[in-house]
Amino acid sequence: MKERLRTLLQPLNLAGLFTLVAVGMALRWMPPERLPYGLALVVAFGALLLVTDMWPRVTWLRPVSIVLMPLIALTLIWLDPRPSVAPVLLVVWTAVMALTISLRTTMIAVVVVDIAYYFLLRSDDHSAPLTVVFIHGGFQAFAALCAWYAASAERARDALARVNADLLATRALLADSTRDNERLRVARELHDVAGHKLTAMTLNLRALAADPAFAGRQEIVVAQQLSSELLADIRGIVQAIRHDRGLDLGTALRALAAPLPRPSLRLSIDDSVHVTDPAVAEAILRLVQEALTNSIRHADADVVQVRLSCDAGRLHIRVEDDGCVRGVLREGNGLAGMRERIVAAGGSLDLSRSARGALRIEASLPA
């Protein structure tokens, strides 16, 4: 309910409703016997204007609305063809269509509807039908261009957000990989340098303890004990560093989704998941990135759930959103690239539909 109210209060929807209220107020000059029909048509137009935004997952609503809206506007003009504000509805319809389909198709549809508008005025013996149509056609062209540029700017913003998310996630993964490599280097240095010298020190202390001149000296016994303990501590630290290696996938994946306005990411990573290979981490990152992109473009999803688990030496990734895949499930360039990347990393990929029609991605990689 809150989401639909937020959609209703968007600036474009508020502007459209304000225009409809103005048109409804102007209908008071319509002949009284036709007024109820006119008001009903304005209400129907408003419902079609809002219904596609209020229920975006009902895919057939938008094309049906785009077809019915000009018919309602032309019917309203036919009820009262005298100069009025009813043609403004055609301007609103043009803006809605330019936000939905290509600019070329929009302009062709506008020309067809304006021809019908011209004949309506001519059939009523209007004194200058062509002039009126040209005036409103200019407003329609202006609305179409404004809406098209607004949609283009929004697409560019979303593309920039995706690129930014990709850079943030890659940077996080690279920084974590660099830290992991540095920890491994320090562990090797401790083992090879400090461990070697402590071993040599232990051997020398043992030789001193065997010398009759130093036999029974408590200081040598203590030094032997300390060197042995220190050598054991260093070996324990090196083992812990090697055991705790692993890339921070959680930070990288959250950075991937953070700049996107939607969908939101619900991430679950089991404690048993430890990825040390940057190639495997990169494959997981790109899989989730492509899943987010598909959810935006094709499923109109609000939430994407990602779960990572480890079992029997394999890393399992499961991705599912709350959207609905339109049409037949086909592997486009994005999904095909996802499969190729997973296979190249030694894994496998399965695509399926959930019970509600959402895309489900299940991948398995070597742990």
From TrEMBL:
Pfam families: HATPase_c, HisKA_3. Residues 281-366 form the Histidine kinase/HSP90-like ATPase domain. Residues 182-244 form the Signal transduction histidine kinase subgroup 3 dimerisation and phosphoacceptor domain. Keywords: Kinase, Membrane, Transferase, Transmembrane, Transmembrane helix, Two-component regulatory system. It comes from the Bacteria. The chain crosses the membrane at residues 12-29, 35-52, 59-79, 91-120, 132-151. SUPFAM superfamilies: ATPase domain of HSP90 chaperone/DNA topoisomerase II/histidine kinase. Gene3D superfamilies: 1.20.5.1930, Histidine kinase-like ATPase, C-terminal domain. One of its GO terms (molecular function) is kinase activity. The keyword Lipid metabolism does not apply. This is Sensor histidine kinase. It comes from Lysobacter arenosi.
